[in-house]
# Entry
Amino acid sequence: MSDILIRIKRAVLAGRFIFSEKAILELNTDGLTELDVVESILNAVAIYKKLRSTSPMRIKPKEYLYVIQSTNLNGLPIYTKGKLTRKDGEDTYYFLISSKRGQ
# Structure
């Protein structure tokens, strides 16, 4: 398991995560809860893809997004995309782009 995934899981376990408005809309559209997404992150065994952010809103010149595909505890596949940031000296995972049912 990668160091980044371990950091993401620890941040999520500690309750240090935030959902963007878009991610919340997608959760509601797909009938998912925040708990579904948290379970999926904690069940993940690998980061599916690492993307370089092209958003003009990014804080750092090189900011990465992590795509994680995993299941919740009921076996429902969930796709998430987010970024790991530092807030008050601690890692925080920001569900930035999407959280939705996997295909």
